[in-house]
Amino acid sequence: MSFSLKYGGKGNLWIGQFSVFPEDLFIHGVSTRHGGFSKGDFDSLNLGMHVNDGVLEVWENRSAFCEALEVEPSDLVTCEQVHGDNVVKVTREDAGKGACNYETAIKETDALITNERNLPLMLFFADCTPIMIADPVKKVIGVAHGGWKGTVSYIAIKTVGAMIREYGCKPEDMVASVGPAIGPCCYEVGDEVAEQFRKSFPEMEKEILAPSPEHKGKFQLNLWRCNELQLQSVGLKKENIDSAEVCTACNNKQFFSYRADKGKTGRIGALLCLR
Fold first, then answer.
1. Which residue(s) pair with 18 in the sheet?
2. Which of 38, 69, 125, 134 could form a disulfide with 46 if both were Cys (CB 3.0 to 4.6 A apart)?
3. Is the pLDDT of residue 241 over 80?
4. Residues 42, 45: Cα–Cα separation, whole Å
């Protein structure tokens, strides 16, 4: 398995893709910050409409990204990400929600699932963890937003659970990816946050938390690994989970990073669509 950036579309547009998703069944991609129309702090392929960038520029960016993936931008389904754990089942009636107007995005939701064909789901990130899940047998997809609050609230597990409950999916059939996000190299948290992870994942502590070598009382948090282990804990096979292990803070010239860019930045997008 692998994660790689591939040139696509016009201009300097690059798309991150995982080998774990069968190309005959699924369209997917993770954007970079290159190849768009936004300026300044949002330079240049900002896909987030909630960061005070120009709506027209963001729509042009989304259109370019979708064109490169050969999906219809006006069909995009997005949500009002609030760092929670709500998972919503999406139907054809939801097509276009949040596509060109943030106010129409699905409210207070951090994961979307569907079995509808040609209905692209897209969520937005700047250090938080993009989680994409697909069932090639039942033909079902899900995309989740794994910030630290969503991760500690089991957003990956709850997305899998919703796919099982709504569509009869089996975890052993699923494939998943953990996309570019802030890595443990750059993500230090205090003891209050660390303690929440210890309580939620006592069996994972040694793999997801390490004392900071530089700052006493701080801990390096590995969101990549925590989400991988969550997926494994509910039955996904280790070999069916592909992790990019790319730190957005280390690579903030390639990806938007809230921490490295000091809070004023754009958003990359993670898109998954059933053909």
1. 3
2. 38
3. yes
4. 7
Question: Is the per-residue pLDDT at 8 higher than 90?
Answer: no
Structure tokens at 165: 């409950």
Q: Domains in the chain, ordered, with CATH?
A: 3-184+241-274 (3.60.140.10)
241: Cβ contacts below 8 Å, ≥ 6 apart: 20, 175, 176, 177, 178, 228, 231, 232
The CA distance from 220 to 179, in Å, is 18
Looking at residue 10, its pLDDT comes to 76
pTM: 0.98
The span from the CA of 9 to the CA of 68, in Å, is: 4
- pLDDT value at 1 more than 90: no
Q: What residue ranges in the chain does DSSP mark as E strands? A: 3-7, 14-18, 26-31, 87-89, 111-114, 121-125, 129-135, 140-146, 175-178, 188-189, 209-211, 219-221, 241-243, 268-274
For 65, left (φ over 0), alpha (ψ -120 to 50), or beta?
alpha
Strand order in the sheet with 140-146: 87-89, 111-114, 140-146, 129-135, 175-178, 241-243
Reported residue count of the chain is 275
> 103-149, pLDDT tens digit by residue?
999 999 999 999 999 999 999 999 999 999 999 999 999 999 999 99
152 and 197 Cβ atoms separated by less than 8 Å: yes
Q: Give Cβ neighbours of residue 209 (< 8 Å, ≥ 6 apart).
A: 194, 197, 198, 219, 220, 221, 222
Tell me, what's the pLDDT at 237?
Answer: 98
Angstrom distance (rounded) from CA 269 to CA 49 = 11
Give me the pLDDT at residue 9, please: 74
pLDDT digits (tens, 9 = 90+) for 179-202: 999 999 999 999 999 999 999 999
